[in-house]
Amino acid sequence: MSAQAMYVLNAREKRGFALPLAHKDKLRCLRKILGENQTEFWRRFGVSQSSGSRFEQGLPLPASLQILIHLYLDGRVTDHDLSLAMAKVEVACD
User: Fold this and answer.
1) What is the pLDDT of residues 10-34, one digit of tens each?
2) Are 53 and 38 spatial neighbours (Cβ–Cβ below 8 Å)?
């Protein structure tokens, strides 16, 4: 199996998707493989669509966001976990 095929397979499984997150093309590729638009993909991490677009254009990711994305891709943090955390943040800000 080619390296590109493994890259796509791993992204679909959200496991072992080793990416230097500063690499803009891999972020965009991951989002597209998951079949999500920028709003859907970045909202899960508490990032606006406009900021996510800037990250995909090469703006460096904060270390905390890199860690969160890696945890998500490793399956250690789920969509459910992120939704619960976002709800707590929104309640705290009200």
Assistant:
1) 555 554 455 554 467 788 888 888 8
2) yes
Cα–chain-centroid distance for residue 3?
21
CB 76 within 8 A of CB 16: no
Quote the pTM value: 0.71
Task: Report how far residue 21's alpha carbon sits from residue 84's, in angstroms, rounded to the nearest whole number.
Answer: 24
For residue 39, give the amino acid letter: T
Tokens 């309640």, located at residue: 91
Measure the CA–CA gap between 57 and 52, rounded to whole angstroms. Answer: 9
First to last CA, the chain: 50
Rg (CA), the chain: 13
